[in-house]
Design a protein that fits this description.
216 residues; alpha/beta; 5-stranded parallel sheet; 48% helix; 15% strand; binds BIS(adenosine)-5'-pentaphosphate; binds magnesium ion
């Protein structure tokens, strides 16, 4: 099963992708996480990515398309994948179709996670993650079970993303509105777009996604 989670910054793509990985044994392909790894490496590309990401703009299409194309070739993707943060432009969506066709693969579902813009800023500015294993949390909506200790790995160090400040979030939301939302009709016309209500709690959104996938 190959699916796309599509939604604005803070919609819950990463949160739900992690659950789907476990539930269906799929692989999460988050271009944001891939880019953050490149930034952490300190390479020339990493320094460029850091600037672009902190401004809330998008990285060039050709680079992102190559990154996903290489990743999909890896053997672990054979059991199916969840695209999280890709495609983000019409050019990326079209390139993905070509790439999948060439590899004899197809998309089963594109799931749009709909969330009102006002709550996105609160979700993003309250987000933090485990510095050891990357598990995601929120100051209000998803606290660790034991204060200061990661539920997943027991780590005690946490970090916040450099682009999770209000100013950058506004720019990221504008990039979503202007460059990413226009790809929704593209998938609608292919008959594979499904929409879930991303405003409900994390467990409920997971249930809605399961229902969509059961019917796919
Ligand atoms: P990326 O890392 O993809 O960031 P994003 O799209 O802005 O999305 P987020 O990761 O912020 O949100 P999310 O939907 O994953 O929400 P989460 O589950 O964490 O991209 C970062 C940057 O990289 C881009 O700005 C761009 O520069 C570059 N980039 C990446 N891909 C690119 C591409 N393809 N092309 C070009 N450039 C690219 O949830 C958010 C918070 O809310 C969490 O704290 C969570 O606990 C909480 N939460 C989740 N669900 C709920 C719920 N239902 N109720 C209450 N709280 C919830
Ligand atoms: Mg994410």
């Amino acid at each position: 099963m190959n699916i796309i989670l599509l939604g604005p910054p803070g919609a819950g793509k990463g949160t739900q992708a992690k659950r789907l990985e476990q539930r269906y044994r799929l692989v999460q392909l988050s271009t944001g996480d891939m880019l953050r790894a490149v930034v952490a490496s300190g390479s020339t590309l990493g320094r460029k990515a850091k600037k672009v990401m902190e401004s809330g703009q998008l990285m060039p299409d050709d680079l992102m398309i190559q990154m996903i194309s290489d990743r999909i070739e890896q053997p672990d993707c054979a059991r199916g994948f969840i695209l999280d943060g890709f495609p983000r432009t019409t050019a990326q969506a079209e390139a993905l179709d070509t790439m999948l066709k060439n590899k004899g693969l197809k998309l089963d579902s594109v799931i749009e996670m709909k969330v009102d813009p006002e709550v996105l800023v609160e979700r993003i500015t309250g987000r933090f993650s485990c510095a050891t294993c990357g598990a995601g949390y929120h100051d209000r909506f998803q606290r660790p079970k034991v204060e200061g200790v990661c539920d997943v790995c027991g780590g005690t160090e946490f970090s916040r993303r450099a682009d999770d400040n209000e100013e950058t979030v506004r720019a990221r939301l504008a990039a979503y509105r202007e460059q990413t939302a226009p790809i929704l009709p593209y998938y609608e016309s292919q008959g594979i777009l499904r929409t879930v209500d991303g405003m409900t709690d994390i467990d409920d959104v997971a249930r809605q996604i399961e229902t969509v996938l059961a019917a796919a």
